[in-house]
Design goal:
By secondary structure, the protein is of the alpha/beta class. The protein has helices at 10-22, 24-30, 42-58, 64-74, 78-92, 99-128, 134-145, 161-164, 178-183, 204-217, 231-243, 254-267, 284-296, 321-339, 351-355, 369-373, 384-388, 428-456; strands at 193-198, 222-226, 272-276, 303-307, 342-348, 376-381, 391-399, 406-414, 419-421, 426-427.
Length: 457
Amino acid sequence: MSKNFDYLGQTFQLQLINQIILDKEFARAILDFIKISYFENKYFKLIIQMIKEYHKKYDAAPNFQTLEVIAKSEISQELALKIVIDTINKISSAPLDGVELVQEKALKFCKQEEVKIVLEKAQKVINEGDFESYDQLEELLRYALQVGVKETNGFEVFNDLSSVLDEDYRHPIPMGIKGIDSLLKGGLAKGEVGIVFAGPGIGKSTLLTLVANTAFNNNYNVLHIFFEDNPKIIQRKHLTLWTKISPDELPNNKEIVFETVNKIKETHSNKLILKKLPSDTLTMNQIKNQIRKIIADGVKLDLVVLDYIDCVVPDRQGNDDWKNEGTVVRHFEAMCHELNIAGWLGTQGNRSAISSQVVTNDQMGGSIKKAQVGHVIISIAKSLQQKEMNLATVAITKSRIGKDGIVFENCKFDNEMLQIDTDTTATFLGFEEQQVERKKERIKELLGKKNSNDNFL
């Protein structure tokens, strides 16, 4: 077996260093164990040395920009600096396909090398009869077996009480729907996951686009991921929110559009990044790596909006499709927690959700395990009459943050202009009582008509 990574090829090594920079957990798992000697290329060795020194000092791997700064400050020879910068750029653009295998192989290689060192020492102890060193060998073996083990440190209940008691400890990001934001105590916070579900064509994308746009307007860095829409359609939706001009009329009002956009650019240094991804081919881990790349390039994301989760495939395909769906959502939640970002995602309702007056969690398409993950779940229902009148019934069906079981009946929901206004609220019980009363009134009305017709005859 080779004593370095050269036998796995240059692409493997580029991907490996790329993952050390992009994946915080992987970096922590491997940097204490990976050795410079595991690389034959002298520029790979130099870059790994810079990463290890930075990590030792700051307990974090440098991003690509910081790595370039370090190289410029430490390398005086012009040609060597150029090669190092070029190598860093190659590492930055290394392919993301198969990174799970790269991480696994690298960790196994490091673990094997550490175990070999311990075994060699153990053999020496046995040969020399130095049994007093047994405890030391046992400790070394334990250390070797720690390669790749993730940190799961707990904390004392009294830890950092000042921030726990801070009124704004959550730092919520508003959705842009006043009634719902109020009930969610300001919106969704970093590390929390919100789920929006409805039948096809009801308004998931409208609500999620509004969420992304509102967060940007509030100076947050936002990534808006979508799978099925044309990118220009999504761009137009955001322009409509800013200009109040319908998407179809935007080309006839270019002057207003450019004027509005220029003002926004002048007043906002944050980013709203749109990203169209292929449907039914990417795993959550691959998406996470793309997000890490954005962060490594200098954009610290605050919110990710994913439209929608049903287009993501599980990292490992099992026989149980429903279990797979739950796993994908759990991976999304884990990513939000790890990267300290808030996450909104959309998912389909089942067939019964299409005709329901209020859509409840048991009408979420696929696995109910998806519902177990969300901190907040919002459903959207529309009758044919509501569609014609740009109305909808929006419900907060789950909330770990504030009140749930709240129904916004016949609230304004204009898909074209992306306007959602929740003025009317009721509890689920109250909504059901209203429906019963309406049926009674309708029966009375019909009976009244029948009696008047009988009297006429």
